Amino acid sequence: MHHIRVALATVTAALTALVALACTASLHRPATGGTLRLTYHIAPLATPDCVEARTPERVSGTRPGGTADGADAILTFHHAFYGLRSGTAAREVVATDARVPSSADIQVGIDSLPLGTRFCVHVTSALAATDRVQRWNVEVAQQVPGAPEITHRQFVTTRVETGHTLITAIAAV
């Protein structure tokens, strides 16, 4: 019986540590005033050397970026892939006529990776934008649990449509 209690305590401690690593907490006060509330946000798992950064030359990290520019759309795509594990969410920043797999095919790729896969996206501009089109060099560091980190290199094209930047092509390099 003692061994079972020790094993349960060890598992509980490990799960608590895992949740602490995967979550961030912040305090929020409603705009109308009121009581501070502690909110937990599940954060995607970043590779050990991943740095959230944005300079004119380079963008890197794991957070969703939005659709303000191509680098943001690329970050959002990969956040959906690795962080949210959702092919549907990944396709939300992809143009309908894009040379990118369907959300179902993206989901197959996501499901082939174990939970806990770490990642970090590095984006640099490849060429100057022309007629609302921009090309990007992308490196995605990926680390499957228990395996060494590998880097996937991509050439991504984005286009501005109705005030949003969407991905129009992703090609492995």
TrEMBL record:
PROSITE patterns named in the record: PROKAR_LIPOPROTEIN
InterPro entries registered for this protein in UniProt: DUF8176
Domain DUF8176 per the UniProt entry, residue ranges: 48-171
UniProt keyword Signal present: yes
Pfam families (alphabetical): DUF8176
Keywords, in A-Z order: Signal
Tree of life domain: Bacteria
Signal peptide coordinates: 1-22
Listed name of the protein: DUF8176 domain-containing protein
Organism whose genome encodes this protein: Nocardia speluncae
